[in-house]
Amino acid sequence: MEIYLIKIIIAHLIGDFFLQPASWVKDKERKKLKSGKLYLHVLIHVVLIFIIFMSFNAWKIALSIGVLHLMIDALKSILQTKKNARILFFIDQILHFSSIVLVWHIFYKGYLNISFINETKTWILLSGGLFLTMPTSIIMKVIIAKWLPESDDESPKSLQNAGKYIGILERVLIFVFILTNHFEAVGFLLAAKSIFRFGDLKEAHDLKLTEYVLIGTLLSFGIAIVVSLMILSLVR
Questions:
Q1: Which of 41, 45, 153, 188 has the smallest set of CB atoms within 10 Å of its CB?
Q2: Which DSSP state fits 18?
Q3: Where among 93, 108, 123 does a domain terminate?
Q4: How many domains does the chain have?
Q5: Domain limits at 17?
Q6: Using CA atoms, how far apart are residues 74 and 58, in angstroms rounded to an integer?
Q7: Across residues 97-112, what is the average pLDDT?
Q8: Global pTM?
Q9: CA 158, CA 206: separation in Å to the nearest integer?
Q10: Where are the bilayer-spanning segments (predicted)?
């Protein structure tokens, strides 16, 4: 990856995440195209290009980034509602990074090597990672469904689907740790989860719930470790 692409990305990260106060975001959401903060935000991105490149010769880059950034943010402000705000945030960032690569390609003849997409190793890694997300969650649900504790309306409520997403994240982390030969991190992850879970289970005073959580945790870690080791042996 060339230094120019990295510089443009750094300018974007600083402008979008460090130099954009929450009050500006709210102002843009409320006033949309009439918001002065929208245009000030774009101006900051232009200025950052000059600062990062330390040269006024980068004016074409700065102008291009500024115009594209304004178009993307303006479109986002027009389309954004409370319901689609979350998904538009990710679409917005994808468009910004795509525009950065486009500008880099046009002015610096940059080329991203994506030949890895056609490699068998890539598809093996992708299949292993995907299997450890929703498919494993469903498999685990089927296996331990018969031990599911009876619901108690008086028990504290957890976030909706929090357990499922925590399980997915922990399995993906185990997948990454094992593939990068950091087996010790798996132990730290298990210890950290045990510490956080200990307080909840201690308060619950429910042996069945404790056993259910223990079975789920060990099953999740076990599947993740076995699948990760299998994938590791295949890609080697």
A1: 153
A2: I
A3: 108
A4: 2
A5: 3-108
A6: 24
A7: 94
A8: 0.80
A9: 17
A10: 38-55, 61-79, 86-108, 123-148, 168-192, 212-235
